[in-house]
Amino acid sequence: MKLFLDTANLDELRKGAAWGIVDGVTTNPSLIAKEGVPMEQQIARICEIVDGEISAEVVSTKHAEMVEEAYKLSRIHKHVVVKVPMTRDGIQTCAKLSKEGIRFNVTLCFSPAQALLAAKAGAHFISPFVGRFDDIATEGMELIRQIVKIYQNYGFKTQVLAASLRSPLHVAQAALAGAHVGTLPFKVLDQMFNHPLTDKGLEQFLKDYAKAFDPAPAGR
Ligand code: E4P
């Protein structure tokens, strides 16, 4: 399973990249806006930090403008994957430009039927949002399981990118469901390291070693 960071914050991306386990990045207009730097400029900076696929989302809603934007974004760097919303215009743009070799991430997917349309349009990634379903008291992970199954049934090449993951448990469940990618906020990636038994075990190992081999305290 590939792990992507869902952030446009350069400090977070540098920290994640330094751990050597980040395979790519997803952004969206809200995340870019938070950093206060226009889309193309921030995406170019991100591409210098993370060596992997970087999703950059269009902000137009009409097909003709989406096409122009998709060309512009895809020219920033060879790793850019153009993100389009799961709308008629988004799917039309994906279907047209996928044939030219531009990779697309179809975002804001909330149903297996939508995921089927994205696969038929040749999307590189489909982004079903897990956490936003959980927010409305509906089990979001079921959507991942259904899409994985549908894609397997027909051998679609579109990769399932589990998005809106809010906890290490979400990441593990998405992996169990067979998602190809999980995208997560930096905080969740950081939380994935933690286990109290790891801390307890390490403390004991170091204590035992120090007892056996550390030089005697001065004055003895
Ligand atoms: C996906 O690409 C989105 O940027 C993201 O995962 C949305 O997460 P949220 O629902 O926590 O905002």
How do the helices and strands line up, and which of them pair or pack?
Blueprint lengths: L1 E5 L3 H9 L5 E3 L2 H7 L3 H11 L3 E5 L5 H12 L5 E6 L2 H11 L5 E6 L2 H9 L4 E4 L2 H4 L6 H14 L4 E4 L5 H10 L3 E4 L1 H6 L4 H18 L7
Parallel strand pairs: 1-2, 1-8, 2-3, 3-4, 4-5, 5-6, 6-7, 7-8
Helix pairs in contact: 4-5, 6-8, 8-9
The structure holds erythose-4-phosphate.
Question: What would your notes on this structure say?
Answer:
This protein is an alpha/beta fold and 220 residues long. It has a single domain (2-194), classed as TIM Barrel. 50% of the residues lie in helices and 17% in strands. It has eleven helices and eight strands. It has an eight-stranded parallel beta barrel with strand order 1-2-3-4-5-6-7-8, surrounded by six helices. Strand 4 (80-85), helix 5 (88-98) and strand 5 (104-109) form a beta-alpha-beta unit. Helix 4 (63-74) crosses helix 5, helix 6 (112-120) runs parallel beside helix 8 (141-154) and helix 8 (141-154) packs parallel to helix 9 (168-177). The longest helix has 18 residues, at 196-213. The chain is globular. The relative contact order is 0.12. Erythose-4-phosphate binds next to helix 7.
Q: Over all CA atoms, what is the radius of gyration? A: 21 Å
**Helical content, roughly?**
40-55%
Low-confidence stretches: none
Count of alpha and pi helical runs: 11
Name the CATH homologous superfamily. Aldolase class I
- Beta content comes to 15-25%
Can you identify the CATH class? Alpha Beta
Ligands (ions, cofactors included): erythose-4-phosphate
Broad structural category: alpha/beta
Note the overall shape.
globular
Number of strands: 8
Number of domain modules:
1
Largest sheet: spatial strand order: 1-2-3-4-5-6-7-8
Largest beta-sheet details: 8 strands, parallel, barrel
Distance between the termini: 55 Å
Find the CATH topology.
TIM Barrel
Element string (H = helix, E = strand): EHEHHEHEHEHEHHEHEHH
Mean of pLDDT: 97
CATH architecture: Alpha-Beta Barrel
